[in-house]
Amino acid sequence: MGLRDIVTARVEVPVMGTTLSLRGLSFADLSRLVIDHREDFLAVVGVVQTSDEPDMGALAAKLAQTAPGLVAKVIALACDEPDLLEAAAALPGPVQLECIMVVGKLTFSEPGAFPKFMANLTGLMQAGAGLVRQTR
Fold first, then answer.
1. pLDDT tens digits for 39-94?
2. Is the pLDDT of residue 95 over 70?
3. What angle, 0 to 180 degrees and rounded to 10, lies between the N-to-C axes of helices 68-78 and 27-36?
4. Residue boundaries of the structural domains of the chain
5. In terms of Cα–Cα distance, which of 134, 108, 105 is closest to 121?
6. How big is the chain by its Cα radius of gyration, in Å?
7. Which CA distances in Å does 127 have to 2, 119, 120, 124?
8. What is the rounded distance in angstroms from the CA atom of residue 95 to the CA atom of residue 54?
9. Residue among 9, 41, 45 at smallest CA distance from 25
10. Which residue has the higher pLDDT, 20 or 52?
């Protein structure tokens, strides 16, 4: 079995008489989010690190409040329509939350994968900031 045998999982989310087809985010997608929305990502890291909420729905709601631009970008990327950021941002709040939940489950399918990813990302960002300071 090889890479060509892997089929990317997608989940359909009903929206206003049609559906959105969502997939999990790749490393390239996540990197793009960090680059394009660094401040939002740092806010998300703060929410995750200070959240004692085991309920992913409650955590997703906090993330939507903290970083709505990031939420819209996640949805647009997961739909493979990154140019439709405004359309993703205009979706009703409950639809956005459902989309974020779906994308989160597809992206971080293993238990504990999301907090581990955020911890690794935080470490990389801190290391990068340290390198920048050293080169000045």
1. 887 777 676 667 665 466 666 777 778 888 889 999 999 999 999 999 999 999 99
2. yes
3. 150
4. 26-128
5. 108
6. 16
7. 34, 12, 10, 5
8. 21
9. 9
10. 20
- For the whole model, what pTM was predicted? 0.78
**Six token digits for residue 118:** 């955020």
Q: What is the Cβ-side half-sphere exposure of residue 76, based on CA atoms within 13 angstroms?
A: 18
Contact 98, 61 (CB under 8 A): no
Handedness of CA 109, 12, 8, 40 (dihedral sign): negative
Looking only at Cα atoms, what is the longest distance across the chain?
A: 55
Tokens 């989940």 label which residue?
11
d(CA 10, CA 2): 19
SS3 call for 91: coil
Three-state SS at 96: helix
Query: Which tokens sit at 47?
Result: 């929410």
DSSP H/E element including 115: helix 113-135
Tokens of 56: 């992913």
| Token pair for 52 | 């004692």
